[in-house]
Each structure stands twice: as C-alpha cells, then as structure tokens.
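Try it yourself: sequence plus zinc ion, in.
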Amino acid sequence: MTEKTCKNCTSPFEVTQEDQSFYKRLKVPPPTFCPTCRLQRRLAWRNERHLYNNTCKKCGTNIIALYQKNTEYTVYCQKCWWSFDWDPRQYAQEINFNRPFFEQWGELFKKVPVINLNNERTSMVNSDYCNYVTDAKNCYLVFAANFLEDCMHSDYIWESKDTVDCSNSTALELCYECTDCDRCYNCNYVTNSQGCSDCHLGYDLKNCDNCFACVQLRNKRYHFLNKKLEEEEYKNRVKKTLANPTLLAQTQKEFEELNLEHPREYTRQLRCENSTGNAIKNCKNCHSCFEGYGGEDLKWVDNFPGDTKDSYDISGCAEIQLCYDSACVGLPAYNMRFCNMILNGGRDMTYCAFMDVGREQFGCIGTKKAKHCILNKQYSKAEYERLVQKLIAHMTETGEWGEFFPAELSPFKYEETVANLYFPR
Ligand SMILES: [Zn+2]
Ligand SMILES: [Zn+2]
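Structure, out:
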C-alpha cells in the first residue's frame, strides 16, 4: 500500500495493492486526486435538473435544454441530434503535440453540437421534460431513471409505473412519496421497505400489507402503529384517521416516536457480501459504493442500476465491465476510461463524451457508431493505434494522462451540477 497526497485538497489517501493491479489492467497511472475529489470532478459534469427554454440550432424548434439560451455550445433537439444527416466528424481536429490535450479537446467541444437533454431518444415516448432517462413512456419531470411508465416528479427510480414523488426505488407501482423502496404496490409515505402493498406511512417494512404508521414489521397485515387489529377494526381506523387531519397529525407524531424507539442498521444493504457503502443490494466485493444493485468487484461507484462489474470511480452506469473514472456509461460498456455520457454502449474508449455507441476512439465528442477516431478525425486502425500511444506519451508529459476532464471544461455552471448538491460551494 502507498499513501499519496491529493493534488486537489491535500488530504492523504491510500492506493492499495489491489488498486494498483486494477490500474495496471486498465493501463492507467494511479490517481493524483483522492476518491472524494475525483467524485466531485465527475459530478461537475452532471447537470441533472437545471432546465432552460432554448431553440434547436438546426431546426429552430423550441426545446427544453440543459443549456441556457445564450450558451456558447451548439444545442440540437433530440430529433436533430440523433439524425444521421450531420456528421460529427466534420468538426475533426488534427492532434497538436505541442499543446496540452485538454485545451484542444475543449475547443472541439465548443464546435460539435450537443444534445438538449441526456436521454436516449428512441426509447422515450411522450416524456419531453425528463433528463438522464431511458425507456420512459408518459413521464414528466423524472430524472436519472429508466424503464418507467406514467411516472412524475421522481428521481433515481427504476422499473416503475404510476408513481409520483418517489426517490431511490425500484419496481414501484401506484406509489406516492416513497423513498428507498423495492417492489412496493399502492404505498404512500413509506421509506426503506420491500415487498409491501397497501401500506401508509411506514419505515423498514418487509413483505407487509395493509399496515398503517408501522415500523420494522416483517410479514404482517392489519397493523396500526405496530399493533395487530382485526380486519374490520383496521379498516375503520384507517378511514377515520385519513378523514380527520388532527387525528392524522397525531398518528404521524406517534409514528415518529415509534420510529425513534427502534434501533436501525448502520447501513442499508440487502443481500450483499463483503461490501461497504449504503443503499445497495445484491452486491459482492463492492467498496464505498452507493445507490445501486447487482454490483461485483466495484470501488467508489455510485448510481448503478444493475450488472456492474470490475470497475472503479463510476457515477451513473449499468451493464459495465472494466471501466474507470467515468460518468454515465453503459448499456453496455467495456474498457472505458475517462468518458462522460456515452449513450447506447461503448467499448475501448478514452476521453470521449456525449456520443452514441462507439468503440476504439480517443478524445471524441458526439460521434455516432464510429471507430478509430481521435478528436473526431477518422484514422485507419494502424494509424489510430500508433497515434493513441503517442498521445498518451504526450499527455503523460503534460500531466494530463490519468485525469478525468477538468471541471473547468464542463459546459455547466458548478451551481447547476450534482457536484454542488454534495459539495456546495
Ligand atoms: Zn482530495
Ligand atoms: Zn432540431
């Protein structure tokens, strides 16, 4: 194990033997930023909820966009951006080995059109006001989510239907104001619960139905403030309580007191093995991982809805393997380093951003189904491989190799990004 000092915040951080071997496999140097500063740098690229009125620069349609009207970036609507009647390679740049790479990448970024919202257009139906969403139908103001129908005002929800005002949950149906729930049906104001139906106000319930203001119950039915009632009695009491605001407020107060009496787990993990972090399920050998499921051999990964393996430093991903220091990659992705917002999958890419499916590319922006490009310029396979090696050597000299895109190059103001939620300035 080696102890390093973070180049950004000067805190000490460790690089273990295991970390070393991961970096070796990815052919990257050990990080110079500590894990927290690396996360902050990635999140400074994620504008999730600051939406503006704008106009598509190609067709003139009024659109909702992540970019303000006076932005220096060229913003296209979903329809125009995803169409094949423009070629991002027309903005190709030669590599200049006498200048820093990020400077050149930043110049390219100001030329290539960007997508108004980070959604996968073909999988979205009647869901124009969503962002970081795929596979959604009739959804409104939903963020960082997928596989949804008729949902609104929610974030970080997956595989859900008819759901409003919910967060960090999977497989909800007909739910309202639920957080950290899984497989719940017709529940309101329920938190940290699984497999429940027809419950109102609850905390840490498992496989319960028809429970009102209950805490930490397992396989129970017709309970009110954790007390068993007869079916008729339960139904009458619920009806009476919901009809009387004073009684409801009193019940809510009693529920909160009951909730405080119960000890709780120090971290929320479900069916996890040898893992640390919070709000994770079905994980194995995951460390410092948050909000996700189905992970294996991960470190410092957050927001991972499913099938995520052998990766470090990822914010937002699904179906990935062997990826490092990237944001929003997957469905599926393999061997990606320092990438941001790659829609529909990618393979063997480095320093690429805001693009549709790609493989074997370096420093590209907005390309679609392309291969062997550097700074959007098309090369032969042999030339691509030779230039990538030369560019990595150049970036090693300039101190850029192994660093994610600097936050200064982000098209968003820090205050608009998720970084500001976790690390407010
Ligand atoms: Zn740091
Ligand atoms: Zn357009």
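One thing you can check immediately is this: The pocket of zinc ion (ligand 2) is lined by residues 56, 58-59, 61, 76-77, 79-80 (CB under 6 Å).
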